[in-house]
Amino acid sequence: MYRVLAAILLSAATAFANDLPNKKYLDLPHIKIMVSAAEAKAKELNVSVTICIVDESGNLLFLEKGETASLNTIQFAQRKARHAAFYGRPSKDGADTIKKGNTEAMAFPEFFPNQGGLPIKIDGKILGGISASGSKSEIDEAIAQSGLDALLKQ
Amino acid sequence: MYRVLAAILLSAATAFANDLPNKKYLDLPHIKIMVSAAEAKAKELNVSVTICIVDESGNLLFLEKGETASLNTIQFAQRKARHAAFYGRPSKDGADTIKKGNTEAMAFPEFFPNQGGLPIKIDGKILGGISASGSKSEIDEAIAQSGLDALLKQ
Amino acid sequence: MYRVLAAILLSAATAFANDLPNKKYLDLPHIKIMVSAAEAKAKELNVSVTICIVDESGNLLFLEKGETASLNTIQFAQRKARHAAFYGRPSKDGADTIKKGNTEAMAFPEFFPNQGGLPIKIDGKILGGISASGSKSEIDEAIAQSGLDALLKQ
Amino acid sequence: MYRVLAAILLSAATAFANDLPNKKYLDLPHIKIMVSAAEAKAKELNVSVTICIVDESGNLLFLEKGETASLNTIQFAQRKARHAAFYGRPSKDGADTIKKGNTEAMAFPEFFPNQGGLPIKIDGKILGGISASGSKSEIDEAIAQSGLDALLKQ
C-alpha cells in the first residue's frame, strides 16, 4: 500500500522534474565542424584570423588565435561574438547603430560596434555567437558566416 | 536633585536621537503589489519582460527574468532602474540627453540611456526605481508605469 | 531534379541542426514554485531572508530581498547561488574548503565560502543555483533546500 | 457625485502611499555634531585622523582627511565605516573573525578586518557607520565612539 503511494509520489516527482522545458545547446562536435569550416574559408581567402564561439550567456566555448593575427583580435573576436549572442544580431548592426547617430548604444552591456560576429540561432532561439577577427570586417563576417553555414546548411 | 538632572539629560538624549528625520522606504508588500501590476500589464500586452526594482541607492530589491526575455534584459533592467533612482528621472531622459548631443553624459555614474526605467517618488522624494526590459522601450516603460501606478494611484 | 537535390540537402541540413543536444533549463513557472516553497519555509521558521536563483552561467533569474534582511544579503545571496551553480556543490563546501586550510580557493572565480547556496541539478546536470541569506547559515540553507525540494520532490 | 468618488479614490491613494513604512536617516546637522565630537576627541588625544560617515548602503556622507594622517587612511576609514554599516558590527569584529581563523570571511562583500569603524544604530536599526583612521586602532575606535556618543548619549 505504502509502496504504491511512494511509487505514485515518485512518478509525480519525476513528472514534475521532467516538466522542465528543453533547449538546444552547442556541443563540441558541432563547434569543431563550425571552426573547421571557418578555418577553410580563411585559408581560401588567404587570411589569418582569430576565430571565437561563445554560448548565449557569452561564455567562451572556443577561441583560436590566427597565426599572424594581431593580439587585439583576441579581444575583438570575443566582443563581436558576445554582441551577437546578447543581441541576437550581427555585430555589424552595432556599428550601423552608431553610424546612424544612436550613440547611446555605446553604453549598452556587451554592445560592440564592429562587424564580424554573427548570432547562432536555431528555431529562432539564440544558442550563442561566432566571430572572426583579423582581416577586413566584411571578410571577418564572411568567415564567421562559413562557420554558421556548416551548422545550418550542411 | 541629581536624579532630576539625570532624568532631564536622558530625556534630552532621547529627544536628540528621536530628532533624526524620517523617510519612507519600499517594503516587500508594496514591492509585490508593484510587481504584480507590472506582470499583469505585461500579460495584457502579451510580452515577456524582466522586471526590476531597486532602492534609492541602487540596491537590488527585486528582479524577475521574463520567461522568454533575452539574457541581456537582466542587465538592462537593473541599469534602467538604477538610472531612474540615481537621477530621479525616467531612463528615457538619458536616451534623449544623448540624442540631443550631450554625449558627455555617457561618462556619468549609473547613467543609462535607454527607456523603460522610472523613478519611484513619494512626496517628491526618491524611494528607488522600477523598470522593465524585453519589449520595445515604450512598452517596457508602460509596464514599469503600471507598477508605479499600483503604488501611487491604487 | 534540382528540387529533389535541394530537398535532400535541406532535409540533411535539418537533420544536422536537429542533431544538436538538448538540456533542461529553469522556466519561470518552476522558479516561482521554488520561491514560494522557500518563502513558506522562511515564514514557518519566522525569519526574513533574501532569496535568489541563478542559471548555470550565474545569470540572475530571480532575487527578492527579505523585508528585514540586511542590505548585505543582496550580495551574499547572489554569491552563494553563483558558487553553487559554478561548482555544482553547496556553498557550505566552499566554507569547509577554507576551514580545512585550502586558502588558495579564495582566489577561484565565483568561489564563495558561506553556507546557504545549493546547486539545482536534474539528471546529474547543473541547471543553476538557489540560495537564501539573512538568517543563520544552516537556516539559510534549509530554506534554499525547501525551494529545491519543491522542484525535485513535489 | 463624481467629485465625491474622486475624493474617495484620492484619499484611498494617499492612504496607500502613506501606508509605506518609515525609517530614520542621518541628516547633515546630526552628522556635523558627530564629526565635531570625534574631532574634539582626536584633539584631546592629540592625534590626527581621517573621519568618515557612511549610510546603511555604504554611501559616503562625510569624509575629512586628518591634517597629518597618511593617504591610506582615506581608504581605511571608508572601508571600516562600510564594514560597520554592512554587518551592523564594529570593524574590530572583522579583525577578530580572521584572528580566530575564519579566513573565509576575507571573501565577504565589504568585509574589512580592521578596528576603528562602528555601526550607527537607532532602535536596533542600522543607519550607517562611523569610523576614524590614522592612529592606533583602539584610538581610532575611541574617536569613532565619541562621534557615536554625541548622537546617542547627548
From TrEMBL, chains A, B, C, D:
Keyword Signal tagged: yes
Position of the signal peptide: 1-17
Domain of life, per lineage: Bacteria
InterPro entries xrefs: GlcG_carb_metab_protein (IPR052517), PduO/GlcC-like (IPR005624), PduO/GlcC-like_sf (IPR038084)
Keywords: Signal
One Pfam family from the record: HbpS-like
SUPFAM superfamilies: GlcG-like
Keyword DNA damage recorded: no
Residue ranges the record marks as coiled coil: none
Name recorded for this polypeptide: Heme-binding protein
Species: Terriglobus albidus
Lineage of source species: Bacteria, Pseudomonadati, Acidobacteriota, Terriglobia, Terriglobales
